[in-house]
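User: Just a sanity check before I run the rest of the batch. Below are the structure tokens for the first item. I only need the designed sequence back.
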């Protein structure tokens, strides 16, 4: 009898947990978020993305897909480090996204906010500004969803206490938003 390699066992458990989270995703909120993105695309409205750490990197990645894929007016609020650092330095870290939302926000535009905890102050401030501007808000969260999951128009919550697993599933959800919008655009063009 051989014993299982502990590292291989860890990898199998981790990937099994992520696969389980993916299987439990409710398509309904993703579909309604795709509908909102489609409406914004049709109206020529901007879609803003923001997140902290790995979530910010995921936002930067998906903006690349949205812009290159079909010219969605997509901006990642994390991508200008001089702008982020000046807002953080001259005001507070809590304000790094909100003034950018003020600049770009308008009725019918969308803010996609990604926060593993759902409690990040700078994400909360961005959502508050977006709501004031009559923007549509989409939130991707983990853990219990925090304030973000209850405040946004479209909550895409991943029920896990693992930040890494939440970020893994968030990237899949962001790709589903992209692919869902791509399908709708291609269907309209055919």
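Assistant: Here's the designed sequence for the first item:
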């Amino acid at each position: 009898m051989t014993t299982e390699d502990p590292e291989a066992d860890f990898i199998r458990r981790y990937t099994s947990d992520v696969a389980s989270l993916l299987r439990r995703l409710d398509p309904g909120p993703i579909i309604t978020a795709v509908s909102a993105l489609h409406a914004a695309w049709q109206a020529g409205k901007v879609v803003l993305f923001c997140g902290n750490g790995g979530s910010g990197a995921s936002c930067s990645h998906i903006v690349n897909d949205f812009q290159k894929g079909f010219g969605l007016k997509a901006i990642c609020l994390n991508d200008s480090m001089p702008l982020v650092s000046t807002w953080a330095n001259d005001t507070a870290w809590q304000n790094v996204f909100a003034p950018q939302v003020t600049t770009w926000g308008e009725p019918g535009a969308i803010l996609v906010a990604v926060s593993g905890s759902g409690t990040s102050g700078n994400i909360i401030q961005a959502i508050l500004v977006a709501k004031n501007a009559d923007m549509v808000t989409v939130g991707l969260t983990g853990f219990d969803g925090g304030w973000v999951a209850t405040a946004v128009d479209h909550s895409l919550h991943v029920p896990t206490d693992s930040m890494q697993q939440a970020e893994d599933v968030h990237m899949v959800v962001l790709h589903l938003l992209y692919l869902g919008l791509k399908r709708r655009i291609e269907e309209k063009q055919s």
